[in-house]
Amino acid sequence: MIIFKHAMKIPSALYQMKRNLSSKGSKLIDGKKISQEIQKEIRVEIDAWMNKGHRRPCLIAILVGENPASQKYVHNKMKAAKDIGITSKTIKLPNTTTESEIIEEIKRLNEDSSVDGILVQLPVPEHVSERNVCNAVDPHKDVDGFHITNMGRLAINLDTFVPATALGVIELIKRSQVPTLGKNVVVCGRSKNVGLPIALLLHSDARNECPGHEATVTICHRHTPPEELSCFTKRADIIITATGIVNLIKADMVKPGACIIDVGINRIMTEEGKPKIVGDVDFEAVCEVAGHITPVPGGVGPMTVAMLMFNTLKAAKNLVKNQQ
Amino acid sequence: MIIFKHAMKIPSALYQMKRNLSSKGSKLIDGKKISQEIQKEIRVEIDAWMNKGHRRPCLIAILVGENPASQKYVHNKMKAAKDIGITSKTIKLPNTTTESEIIEEIKRLNEDSSVDGILVQLPVPEHVSERNVCNAVDPHKDVDGFHITNMGRLAINLDTFVPATALGVIELIKRSQVPTLGKNVVVCGRSKNVGLPIALLLHSDARNECPGHEATVTICHRHTPPEELSCFTKRADIIITATGIVNLIKADMVKPGACIIDVGINRIMTEEGKPKIVGDVDFEAVCEVAGHITPVPGGVGPMTVAMLMFNTLKAAKNLVKNQQ
């Protein structure tokens, strides 16, 4: 009782969450901690890289318009880059910038040998084609992995830049030592930069240049009937959800011991009228049955930034290798 | 009884098959007939195209080495092209041709404005990189859909050349009026030119530039445990198998009324010691439960050639459109 009272006096959400989880048998996948480990590893690699006489890796973000969420995302990415030892800069363009002006800017960066990674923060304004902009980035500098060539390389498991969130999900599964070979995976959501790349990486052959993970993968989406979704998830060893639907995954849909990766980021109001960020999973209830589970926030979110740094260092190394 | 005796006197395999099927309630998907319908439609389209003053579409095959199966496949494709009104030619190169010599030949065809479609018959000899050769073909002339850019376009549902066998499977499902929206599909086999493109087309959104088919898709493969495969197939409305495993799909694995598309081509010996071509499905037994089923031969096989003709006409039209 004394311990409990003490805990109540320091009401840290994560503390409370961990306490609940350990009593329930679920193992929290602490994305924040894992992302910090990865960033530490990358920092060490960057030091080693520079000790070999190479310049500091360099990441440039292009931010078009004043979308507050985009501004925040870019700020977080650039801060992480700086902290890790990557030269970073944000090119801010007004909302009125034309597509060809953006593409001109990208071409300038493509040709700039001091730049390793280029990212265009999405969404771009409506008058700009997202696809044209993504395809304008040199595939070798495409640290977001959105260029059509890199999507093709991913589809046939050639070495490529895997979109950072998808790569983050895979890394969480790997570092949590959750087996995938011959296991049933359900991916909820088929977006081209999250659900699809995850499905492509998880179902494919481990012997490929970009190794797959040999799982049996089911891709579910808006047209999967709820009762069918439930059938699939109940047999799944791993459930990955990236739908933006609050409480899509409930406890009675989860096989005991399954690993749950929640990519959803949903802004809701609590009963007390307070804003709160939640995922797609009914977290408290699912913890009772899951073997591993990611919290939201603090799960997949921090991994996206870490894997972007991973891709940037990779771009820097590839550029030197290709020059040789 | 008299009718039965009469039937015995004209022992046509297809006749016998159809008779069995109609008594069992399964509807045979006659790929040969459907492919002939498609080829007839393409012939009409080619006539209309030429009536507008355009030249005849032109397809060139590159055949390296003396592989008898490859020779036969190329022969069939070129014959179909000729029959349909497509100019066709096979460039035969010796087995000793180097990769760069093959790529030089491809480049010449890329630049030849009288050529619409180029296909390199696979497999190429071991000393040649299949990937380099596929990527050397101008994506606009890549009627096999194997270029990395076209794989990327397929992955994100942009208009592209879909690999012919995958396109043939989709067309068989469409023309048999088998619904896909929200239905469970199992794809057995994850090859990059058959299983994967089929899965990409079937799971994705119908509102895309290259429309998807809105099914819930499970990709199974060598590491899917047999008992799990069976669980998935039993719940499937459509099963597509492209594994090369004889009798992989048995009657007790199939939901009554399901649609079965058999891409397998396996050479076996009958009990009487005669060679026979069969698919991946235990055809006779599965007919008892399936709603629709493709035979082997005469199912998917003929569709591959028809859809290659479709892609060649499409290439011809695109080339003119891109010149305008």
Q: Could you walk me through the main structural features you see in this protein, from its secondary elements to its overall organization?
A:
- The structure is a homodimer of 324-residue chains.
- With 324 residues, the first copy, chain A, is an alpha/beta fold.
- In chain A, helix 4 (68-84) crosses helix 12, helix 8 crosses helix 9 (195-203) and helix 8 (164-175) packs across helix 12.
- Chain A has helices at residues 2-9, 13-24, 31-51, 68-84, 99-111, 130-136, 148-155, 164-175, 195-203, 226-234, 283-287, 300-323, and strands at 27-28, 58-64, 87-93, 117-120, 184-188, 216-220, 238-241, 259-262, 266-269, 275-278, 292-293.
- A six-stranded parallel β-sheet of chain A has the order 1-11-8-7-5-6, with helices on both faces. The first copy, chain A, has a three-stranded parallel β-sheet with strand order 3-2-4, with helices on both faces.
- The model of chain A is unreliable at 1-11 (pLDDT under 50).
- Chain A folds into two domains: 55-144, Leucine Dehydrogenase, chain A, domain 1 (Rossmann fold, 3-Layer(aba) Sandwich), CATH 3.40.50.10860; 162-302, NAD(P)-binding Rossmann-like Domain (Rossmann fold, 3-Layer(aba) Sandwich), CATH 3.40.50.
- Chain A has twelve helices and eleven strands.
- In chain A, helix 9 (195-203) links the parallel strand 5 (184-188) and strand 6.
- Strand 6 (216-220) of chain A pairs antiparallel with strand 6 (216-220) of chain B.
- Chains A, B: This is methenyltetrahydrofolate cyclohydrolase.
- Chains A, B: Keywords: Hydrolase, Multifunctional enzyme, One-carbon metabolism, Oxidoreductase.
- Chains A, B: One of its GO terms (biological process) is tetrahydrofolate interconversion.
- Chains A, B: Homodimer.
- Chains A, B: Its EC number is 3.5.4.9.
